[in-house]
Amino acid sequence: MNKNSTFSIWFSTARPKTLPLALASILVGSALAYWAGHFDWLTTLLALLTTTLLQILSNFANDYGDHIKGSDTAERIGPKRAIQHGAINGEQLKKSLYIVGALSFLSGVSLIAYAYQSLQDLVVFLSLGIIAIIAAITYTVGKKPYGYLGLGDISVLIFFGFLAVLGTFYLQAHSVPLLIYLPALGCGLLSVAVLNINNLRDIEQDRKAGKTTLIVRIGSQNGRCYHLVLLVLAVLSYFIFGLFAFQHWYSFVFLLAVPLLAKHGYFVYQHKDPSELRPILGQMAGLALLTNVLFSMGLAF
């Protein structure tokens, strides 16, 4: 195997298409810090690096966990993973977890060491960082991975919404007004919507593999209604924040994404065949990123 093919295999295993969504949370948190007059470039860059590594760690762990549990079969509708067709093996993927986990920890420690202002900050964020690393791995790895228990949605809401946005904001502003919780909620809900498309697409395979996602629990029809609720609540979270925080009408630029979100939501609601949702996963990730970027632009106006 040459170096180019090795790189491409590990690059695809890192799932680069998932990274912008993770980075969007840091973008929103830093944009809020800028809006509040507390923006710090180095904190933002270290937060982006740490989040990137944690997302890659989560992706590696997801592949490894599904592999050892036999969840990724030939029936899988989504893109085939490198470990499925033997390009890498379980032992290699396991070693990568240790390496990326260590890098995530070092990056997180660097972020906290630079940004903390009190012993309490140090203890709290070190603890949160360790929890984030453990959560990234145990989503599908371990005796009772929480991704197999229908807890993926709440985990994504917490880590991609509240922890990422509020944590990034706090490390720059060193306080978190209650109003900031609204965009953190919106950001988290859009991330949950991406996971929801994935779970709607894989519902039959997950059911056979014993992976009891929320969609497996509530069924496809309720899952599509749930998807609409996620989109509506996300937009409302940003909009209510704007009513209290924005001084100009053009700061509501994120509303430009609403027609696209509505079109997407209608498609998901109408289409019952899981295979039709394969291209929609990338679409939802793109819409989440677009909404967060537009919202961040509005904060700068």
Describe the fold and architecture.
- With 301 residues, this protein is an all-alpha fold.
- It has one domain.
- Helices cover 73% and strands 0% of the residues.
- The chain has twelve helices and no strands.
- Helix 3 packs antiparallel against helix 6 and helix 6 packs antiparallel against helix 7.
- It starts with a helix and ends with a helix.
- The relative contact order is 0.13.
- InterPro entries: MenA, UbiA_prenyltransferase, UbiA_sf, UBIAD1.
- Pfam families: UbiA.
- It is found in: Cell membrane; Membrane.
Described by strand count, sense and barrel closure, the largest sheet is: none
The helix tally amounts to: 12
Give the tally of β-strands.
Answer: 0
Strand content: under 5%
Gyration radius, in Å: 19 Å
Amino-to-carboxy terminus distance: 50 Å
The low-confidence runs, each spanning 5 or more residues with pLDDT under 50, are none
The backbone outline, from C-alpha atoms, is: globular
What portion of residues is helical? over 70%
Domains, number: 1
Structural class determined from secondary elements: mainly alpha
Integer average pLDDT: 90
Q: Spell out the helices and strands N to C.
A: HHHHHHHHHHHH
